[in-house]
Design brief:
478 residues; alpha+beta; BirA Bifunctional Protein, domain 2; Translation Initiation Factor IF3; 3 domains; 14 helices; RNA-binding
Length: 478
RNA sequence: CGGGGUGUAGCGCAGACGGCCAGCGCGCCGCGUUUGGGACGCGGAGGUCGGCGGUUCAAGUCCGCCCACCCCGACCA
């Protein structure tokens, strides 16, 4: 880690990722296998993600609450598919306060069960519906293989849990939340995700239907960046979540759940990062603008710092950091803030003081091309416009990269070739779990999603040749 | 859980056949000179060599067992 340069992406992508996460001080390995410490810089990014999502949740009528970390083992067992899906990865507490527990507690891997239990107590009438609750918290899943942010034993997320009177309402809620995730990913994180439906074999354990937003990382692997599930009446029946309708008939509720986790930080890193380091989207970046003062002598310092303070004052609408450390050179600071992905850097030196200018360097365009000199007058407007431009450019670049790597092979041989070269395949697909498994065995690619946006018309399934009306994306995934 | 790899200073590493005060680079601390793309000089601090046991006059070094972590596969947000 003492080498100045990161391992280039092209040389070893996962090495690049691991070094970057640690050197940018996003996260570090904890003393427990598979666990991470989210460092202040990484957590600050997460807080901005939280704020962007939370405001969208609130705007659509959701409220926050907190449910317990521990769940009675028996709760999980009430929903057959759910317990089968999660049993292998549970952390179980058998001793508390020094003595064996009568019933083991699991550390929540997700909270459908305990929230379902509570909903059955709270919901009695159609007048109580819908219930629209979200929780910000942490969960534990005992994974075999872990990566910082992408898959850790413990991770942070939000999980929304709603209960509705009708199937239609539940489906509408599920899709609404998928839309919110899609909007967040594109417009806040500049991550061009593809919203779609999961196949039967890829869906959440206990769901009727699962939806996902799929993103393409810099190595072209797919990442499930958020999910929204229509749980039908599965959990309502398992936990007796019932209400009396207008005609005094007892009905089971229809429930949903949806989540987005700190994995999304990994998505941001791997969507935008380059060989210099992180590239953070302006709307989420913990620091949007870093100001680096440059001077030699004391009299220069006074003049420069006065200009720096004045400019900083103008930029009060932004998240600004003045790097006034004396012990490192400006060149070192440039590299360091580029590693940390700050979208915009301002340099102010004696020449700028003389010219009433500042040097602007945008992170999304490395090197001299991304550098320009602008007047100090009107700097707030200049910065605002530049941040907007950077945000838009990042989405544009990521979208171009994604689209350039999505292919439409016409037969299975061509399909295999695309996957072998790590591309994504967008193909006609006739749902069939066995064929899907065969493709996975042949190519290691999985069905990422059946996109919401469908071209219409009919075609022949890439694998079976049967006529079908839907297209799907296949790719290797994280 | 299968395969591979690594544990020596905060980080990255070197330590042929066992041998005396365990080294190097980066980082860190002090002083001085520097500062528009990863500065330099001088002087410092910092080590149960992953753990336990064994062989030996003598063990980072040889042997055994254990532990941890990383990478690659099967499962997952």
């Amino acid at each position: 880690m003492d080498e100045k340069k990161l391992t280039p992406k092209a040389e070893n992508y996962s090495e690049w990722y691991n070094q970057l996460v640690q050197r940018a001080e996003m996260a570090d390995y904890a003393p427990v296998r598979g666990c991470m410490v989210v460092r202040p810089y990484g957590w600050s990014l997460w807080e901005n993600i939280q704020a962007a999502l939370d405001s969208r949740f609130k705007a659509t009528g959701h409220v926050n609450a907190a449910f317990p970390l521990f769940i009675p083992m028996s709760f999980l067992e009430k929903e057959k598919e759910h317990v089968e899906g999660f049993s292998p990865e549970l952390a179980v507490v058998t001793i508390g306060g020094g003595s064996e527990l009568e019933e083991p507690l699991i550390v929540r891997p997700t909270s459908e069960t305990i929230i379902g239990y509570m909903y059955s107590k709270w919901i009695q009438s159609y007048r109580d519906l819908p219930v629209l609750i979200n929780q910000w918290g942490n969960v534990v899943r005992w994974e075999m293989r872990t990566r910082l942010f992408l898959r850790t034993l413990e991770f942070y997320w939000q999980e929304g849990h709603t209960a509705h009177a009708t199937a239609e309402e539940a489906e509408a809620e599920t899709l609404q939340m998928l839309d919110i995730y899609t909007d967040f990913a594109r417009n806040e994180a500049a991550v061009p995700v593809i919203p779609g439906r999961k196949s039967e074999s890829e869906k959440f354990a206990g769901a009727v239907r699962s939806y996902t937003i799929e993103a393409m990382m810099g190595d072209k692997k797919a990442l499930q960046a958020g999910t929204s599930h229509n749980l039908g009446q599965n959990f309502a029946k398992a936990f007796d979540i019932q209400y009396l309708d207008e005609t005094n008939t007892l009905q089971h509720c229809w429930t949903t759940s949806w989540g987005l986790s700190t994995r999304f930080i990994g998505a941001i890193i791997m969507t935008h990062g380059d060989d210099q380091g992180l590239v953070l989207p302006p709307r989420l970046a913990p620091i949007q603008v870093v100001i680096v003062p440059i001077f030699r002598k004391d009299e220069e310092k006074d003049l420069v710092m006065a200009a720096v303070e004045r400019v900083k004052g103008e930029l009060s609408a932004f998240r600004v950091k003045v790097d006034d450390r004396m012990e490192v050179t400006p060149g070192f600071k440039f590299n360091e803030w580029e590693l940390r992905g700050v979208p915009l850097r301002l340099e102010i030196g004696p020449k700028d003081v003389a010219n009433n200018s500042v040097a602007l360097a945008r992170r999304d365009i490395p090197g001299r091309e991304g550098k320009s000199f602008v007047p100090q007058d009107g700097i707030a407007d200049t910065v605002a416009a530049m941040l907007t431009t950077i945000q838009a450019n990042m989405l544009e670049k990521a979208t171009q990269f994604r689209d350039a790597n999505i292919h439409e092979p016409q037969d299975y041989e061509a399909f295999k070739q695309v996957i072998a070269e790590d591309g994504w395949c967008y193909v006609w697909w006739k749902a069939n779990a066995e064929n899907e498994a065969q493709i996975k065995e042949d190519t290691k690619a999985t069905l990422r999603c059946i996109p919401i946006d469908q071209p219409g018309g009919k075609g022949r399934c890439i694998f079976s040749g049967e006529e079908t009306t839907e297209k799907a994306y296949f790719a290797k995934a994280y």
